[in-house]
User: What shape does this take?
Amino acid sequence: MLTDLVQIRQQGESKRAENLEFRRYLSSHHFAVEQFQALAGEIRAQVDCTACANCCRCSTVTIRESEIAAIARYLRLEPEEVIRLYTEPGEDERGSRTLRSGKDGCLFLDGNLCMIYEARPKTCREFPHVAAGEHSLASRLSSLCRWASICPIIYNSLERCKHVAGWKPGSC
Assistant: This one.
């Protein structure tokens, strides 16, 4: 299993076209998402996310009002203060908010650890979204490919899935 973040970035980026081809293969061969989720669960159990934290460095987290309130309680601040200090307007017109990021990722990231871990948003709690669920990335394999160069769990899960599915480059 590959866990070196530099190699994962290089391999993930060099396999973008291959992963796209694999995605097409899966959709035409009806590979069950549950099989992928089982493989990803095995790999997730072997990866220490606090040794990586790339998701906290590379992603944008949309945050709900209830999550702002939870962070405010955790930090002993008013929700308005959390909004002012730690969020910015989202990219949609519905008034959504996202957690702010700095040059090293999420403002709540300290090294590889989350300073609000107990109150972190649902998106953060569930990343890399490979478990069974209504909004899991695993149910949208197309979304997984863009995370393969960032997340050791996703990268290794995709590579193992290719092997289990019997896929070979050029077999589409």
